[in-house]
Amino acid sequence: MKKNYTKSLLLFLLPLILSGCSLPFAQKKAEKPEILMAQECGMDGLKCCATSPACSYGQQCCIDPNDPARNRCADTCGCGGKDEFCCSGDNKCNSGLSCQEGLCQECGGEEQNCCNGSTCTGKTKSGAGELVCQKDKCVACGVPGGPCCLNGSSCINNENTTSTVECLSGLCAACGANELPACQSGSQSCLPEHLLSSNICYRCGHDNQPCCDSSQKERCATTEGLVCELGFCKKQ
């Protein structure tokens, strides 16, 4: 009798246990589509919902003045201000802003769009140097590979750099150092302890390097005990 009673109890409880374990999974599947739908419309900056209310939290449904089919939810509807739709007509955005993909956004800073298509007003992120407009983006000027600056000092040369930087065809290019092209401006084509060969600068004067030319203070570094033999610096 005891065995039959235990067996009957297990058969009765087994379906309940299995159904109870599957319940949390069933609830998760039901919740996921609702979360996704809540992010598609009606929130700040998103498009207005087709159902009522069109926007949540008391926001208004704002219509793009340049495209009636486009809308978004915002606290107030207007145009020309930051994060607002661009106005129709010539003056699309307020001062310091530019129309970007239909919205007025900040301009003139580093990596931001140029204001009025050509003007940069900010400073570089490091606080030193200036910005110029290149391909409708404000970028740092004066650095190797960047555009030349417009303030008279076309390229920036720091004392701790191992090469010279000069403006060539509107871009700042490194020159004068080992395996770099000779500089076209200034009094020196190559930096000291460099040798010019076929318009390329090479290191010279040290062990197993070519001897420097006669314009250098020493053809080979005598402090290292080197002499020039067959065009190369060797230890005595």
Task: Output the keywords.
alpha+beta, 16% helix
Would you give an account of this structure?
The protein is an alpha+beta fold and 236 residues long. Among the domains are: 40-99, no CATH class; 107-140, no CATH class. The chain has one helix spanning 2-38, and strands at residues 60-64, 67-74, 97-100, 103-106, 131-134, 137-140, 164-168, 171-175, 180-181, 194-197, 200-203, 226-229, 232-235. A 3-stranded antiparallel beta sheet has the order 9-11-10, with no helix packed on it. Strands 1-2 form a two-stranded antiparallel ribbon. A two-stranded antiparallel sheet has the order 3-4. A hairpin with a 2-residue loop joins strand 1 and strand 2 (67-74). The protein is rod-shaped, with a radius of gyration of 35 Å.
Strand order of the largest sheet: 9-11-10
Mean pLDDT: 81
Silhouette: rod-shaped
- Give the biggest sheet: 3 strands, antiparallel
Structural class: alpha+beta
Q: List the helices and strands in order.
A: HEEEEEEEEEEEEE
Number of E-type strands: 13
Low-confidence regions: 18-37
Question: What's the helix count?
Answer: 1
Q: Approximately what portion of the residues adopt beta-strand conformation?
A: 15-25%
How much is the radius of gyration in Å?
A: 35 Å
Distance between the termini: 110 Å
